[in-house]
Design a protein that fits this description.
The protein has 17 helices and no strands. By secondary structure, it is mainly alpha-helical. It has one domain: Orthogonal Bundle (Farnesyl Diphosphate Synthase). Helix 8 runs antiparallel to helix 10 and helix 9 packs across helix 11. It starts with a helix and ends with a helix.
Length: 402
């Protein structure tokens, strides 16, 4: 039985902060990220820069315990293992399966303090699998965004992401009983079990890394199609992973329609995050996801507007540019709304929450007049509580078979 009152308390309200903040698209995937508009279905976008020297973030151990400290907030990745000559982490021994599961649970619960609340909306037999996918996305995000700004930081990120991709591919080969080294990183020890249990493909996991690598090369977008191309790798794969965990791998009747609705919802979540965080992306990451041809706005235009919040001409120009993007995003949410009803009852509440939370943030963007360059929209406490309470009630009914 779901404790509805507990879910609607302070923790429950914080849970929906996930849709009210920003941690990053490809990354908060298997859990509603603490500060992300896309949550389990975003799961990749952009993160904030961390230290200038990634090598400062490595700590060696004096024993052979394969424990790896989880990424700590946005402060950087602590690789608590010895490194080889290239500086990449090499665990001294493979963790046991029990150690690996404990690690991904701890990472989910430690970085994302509301994962325990989310997990009460997820079917019990999938909670560890969600944690494994979340851990993969969390590590991917931090490897991409915690290496520091500038060319050196981006080069480090590309190198680390290439290493991570190799580990991921070996993990899936091992899961398929193909010739491959046994996983030695706890994330991949756990993920191999999840992949084997559910017959997961490495393809969506690789597409998430494609988006993180794209963030190291591309910081400006000209057209809507270019932005959507980014979303197809940064957000849509997470929805496909969640559907696969729910038993929808493309072989069941209606899966093609489910995939289309999931993609629409995931991309809409990512776009909502972009429209919500225009200022933060520009100032902290030097990234602009507003398509310049559609909006007529360049990064230079936006920087000039930043200090002109009281200039009616600047506000009107920005609002007229962003409003059509918000309207197109709303249509995508509408296209994805039927998705929860097509799933088995236990999966419906959590999938509904991601879409409803994203739409709530989009509505807040509209209520501030789409002036997100100056006014970052946030959900009220009552709105957060209502969303989580409704999801909890849906979960309770689902477990009663109603």
């Amino acid at each position: 039985m779901v404790d509805v009152d507990g879910l609607v308390g302070a923790q429950g309200e914080d849970l929906v902060d996930d849709f009210d903040g920003h941690a990053d698209a490809g990354a908060e995937a298997a859990g509603v990220g603490q500060e992300d508009a896309h949550g389990v279905l975003r799961v990749a976008g952009a993160g904030c820069a961390g230290h200038d020297d990634s090598r400062e973030r490595r700590v060696s151990r004096t024993d052979d315990t394969p424990v790896i400290a989880p990424p700590t907030g946005r402060a950087g990745v602590l690789l608590d293992v010895p490194a080889d000559a290239s500086g990449l982490p090499i665990p001294t021994r493979a963790p046991t399966l029990e150690e690996a599961w404990a690690y991904v649970r701890r990472l989910a619960g430690g970085h994302y303090e509301n994962f325990s609340v989310l997990s009460r909306l997820v079917p019990p037999d999938l909670r560890d699998d969600f944690a494994a996918v979340y851990a993969y996305c969390r590590w991917s995000d931090d490897l991409a965004d915690e290496t520091g700004a500038g060319d050196a930081g981006r080069a480090d990120a590309r190198r680390l992401l290439a290493w991570w991709r190799g580990q991921m591919l070996a993990c899936f080969a091992h899961a398929r009983a193909e010739p491959a080294d046994e996983p030695r990183h706890p994330v991949f020890v756990a993920l191999a079990q999840t992949a084997r249990r559910h017959g997961l493909s490495p393809e969506p996991f690789g597409r998430l890394l494609d988006a993180f690598e794209q963030d190291q090369r591309v910081s400006r977008y000209r057209t809507w199609d270019e932005v959507m191309g980014y979303c197809k790798n940064s957000a849509d794969p997470v929805g496909r992973i969640v559907l696969a965990l729910a038993g929808h791998d493309g072989s069941r009747p209606g899966d093609a329609e489910r995939f289309a609705m999931s993609d629409a919802t995931c991309s809409a979540l990512q776009l909502t995050n972009h429209w919500q965080d225009v200022r933060r992306d520009l100032v902290e990451r030097d990234r602009v996801y507003l398509p310049s041809e559609e909006t007529g706005l360049t990064a230079e235009d936006l920087r000039r507007m930043l200090d002109r919040a009281d200039d009616p001409a600047a506000r009107v120009r920005y609002i007229r540019a962003v409003r059509p993007l918000v309207e197109r995003t709303r249509e995508m949410f509408r296209a994805g709304r039927p998705l929860p009803r097509t799933l088995d009852r236990p999966m419906r509440p959590v999938v509904w929450l991601f879409g409803a939370g994203g739409e709530a943030v989009l509505s807040r963007i509209e209520r501030v007049g789409c002036a997100t360059l100056w006014d970052r929209p946030r959900l009220s406490r009552s709105r957060k509580a209502w969303l989580v309470g409704l999801a909890a009630a849906r979960a309770a009914l689902a477990r009663r078979g109603r």
